[in-house]
Amino acid sequence: MVTQTQAAVADVLAELAALEDPKIRAVNERHGDDHGVNLTRLRAVAKRLKTDQDLAGRLWTTGDTAARLVAILISRPRAYRADELDAMLRDARVPKVHGWLLSYVVRKSPHVEELRVLWFDDPDPVVASAGWALTSDRVARAPDGLDLTGLLDRIEADMRDAPERLQWAMNECLATIGIHHPELRARAIDIGERLEVLKDYPTPAGCTSPFAPVWIGEMVRRQALAPAPSARS
User: How many other CB atoms are found less than 10 A from the CB of residue 210?
Assistant: First the structure.
């Protein structure tokens, strides 16, 4: 007997299959994402479904990338245990699924710091990249207790030869330190200039280069131009 949830899973999979566009899939596959659904339409599917933790779990277990993206959007982040999120992250090999899981679920979880520590030194570079991404969040928002100099030491030693996704996450952490911590800015820029990671990365007009010295310089410039907060009356 087919349950109501099983029927809902089948309906969502059929709807996503109908939205599949070969041209979108071809573009996504160049970035490692194996789906061809326009993300605006995918978000509309999730919006109609609303938050549904049970359905989210069933969609995740299908292993289908588009279904997993919907699952993330209809999840209740605080409902997941730390071990569940750890297993999901390790299974989320597709870059878009990995990124959305971090952004929409892990970062809103009460277990975020526990997972940051767990993942930071993981031997799997994709898992470790998640730990570094969460560390960048702390560098910007809650740096107390972090060894920022030690992070720069690690970046200086390991970033140049790190696998791509870990390298990107370490580079983001380097830039974040330089942007938010003026006392370490010169060293962060120096590390970026010497390692030259992403120096030649093609950057569209109007976008900021991911090359850390340029990224730091541009964000610091914007900070200087931002109006100072007004005093309370």
Answer: 16
pLDDT tens digits for range 7-23: 899 999 999 999 999 99
pLDDT single digits (tens) 115-133: 999 999 999 999 999 999 9
Which H/E stretch holds residue 156? helix 148-158
Alpha-carbon distance of 108 to 114, in angstroms, equals 13
Sign of CA dihedral 156, 157, 160, 164: negative
Task: Give the separation between CA 213 and CA 191, rounded to whole angstroms.
Answer: 9
Give every CB contact of residue 42 below 8 A, 6+ residues apart in sequence: 16, 19, 66, 69, 70, 73
Give the three-class secondary structure for 91. Answer: helix
Angle, helices 148-158/164-180, rounded to nearest 10 degrees: 140
Task: Return the sign of the alpha-carbon dihedral for residues 207, 211, 217, 222.
Answer: positive
User: What CA–CA distance (Å, rounded) separates 125 from 150?
Assistant: 19
pTM: 0.92
| Torsions phi, psi for 101 (to 5 deg) | -60, -45
Q: What is the DSSP string of 164-226?
A: HHHHHHHHHHHHHHHHH-HHHHHHHHHHHHHH-TTTT----TTS--SSHHHHHHHHHHHHHHS
Contacts of 163 (CB under 8 A, 6+ apart): 125, 126
- Position 44, amino acid: A
